[in-house]
What does this fold into?
Amino acid sequence: MSVIPGAWQRAARGAGLLSADGVPAPTIFAEMSALAARTGAINLGQGFPDEDGPAEVLEAARAAIAHGGNQYPPGRGTADLLTAVAEHQERFYGLRLDPEREVLITAGATEALAAALLALLGDPDDEVVVFEPFYDAYAALVALAGARLVTVPLRRPDFQPDIDELRRAVGDRTRVILVNDPHNPTGTVLSAEVRSEIVRLAHHHDALIVTDEVYEHLVFDGAHVPIATLPGAAERTLTISSGGKTFATTGWKIGWLSAPAPLVDAVLAVKQWLTYVNGAPFQPAIAVGLRLPDDVFTGIAARLREKRDVLGAGLTAAGFEVSVPRGSYFTVADAAPLLRTGEDAADFCRALPGRTGVVAIPLTAFVTPAQRADYATLVRFAACKRLDVIAEASNRLAGLGA
Ligand code: PMP
Ligand code: GLN
It folds into this structure.
């Protein structure tokens, strides 16, 4: 039987995301996790924690399942979680939201991103500006929405965008500036100057801003600054986050979006035909998480910071040149000193389980084909693993130069 290419297949093929015979390549995360499972290597590839998060959050999900919270929740999300998201945005950022009209619960940040892009983009000439490297789903979702991706490079050592390159990328066709801050895969936190330039450009070109803030509580120095808090930004910003990273519940897929009511309604119009709703017993549990005291959140960031430091020291000792991340689960390291002749970081990562029993992700997985050369020696390591696991990975990597 042959499969008639549907909209996604056509879009994905056009964007180079699918092979000519229509077979979907596994995502780089699935490929590398399978490699880790097959070889028994330590998985510093896919960004998921190997320890449980706050006990209160896990207990609340168990209680919800035990007490009948197992049927469809309301389309926008449970009233309790909508309120908890609004309270969270006010407590941490001073943003005041109407939980009934300006917040939407989604199946992870991924569904919020998908529904937002599908809702906001319509014309093949619509452009979405993103910083590159970017989380792999962005290119796929922009292709699915039938729009064009325009990228602004983030370069070492600090992976901040160049303001002039940002200005050149945004124009009158720009419908959305899609911003991931703190950033996967580089771990960068945007400077105040870049944030305000994004808002200025969005105003000037009448574009919307979609932010992906899933690492909002994993910032190592100072506090996270949502773009929606900048003057004049909230009216044109859709702010997206999820509970997966903060509470170490990546498999629960509880996300949310907040924006002015008409924008939330536009996203809901798509979202209700994607999943409709999800995660009934996990919604009250994430509400419990969002209401935990401030010291729980600072503790989560402090523990990850320690892991980042141990991982960074291990990578440096092994001979990598490390870019110290300011947030997120990830550390980027230059493997150039360790590459064999003719090898790039993708070859290196495929061989790494065999060489040392560690899995990591090449940065080329996060860039468009034209930009691969600029990132060809860089590797992303995930620090969201137990300290003893990171220490063991460091021991194994130490043998690389030998
Ligand atoms: N955005 C970024 C930048 C991510 O790294 C991830 C996944 N880890 C997601 C979105 C997806 O989040 P969720 O699992 O909540 O869909
Ligand atoms: N966001 C996770 C990462 O960057 C992976 C999520 C996924 O597998 N899609 O590692």
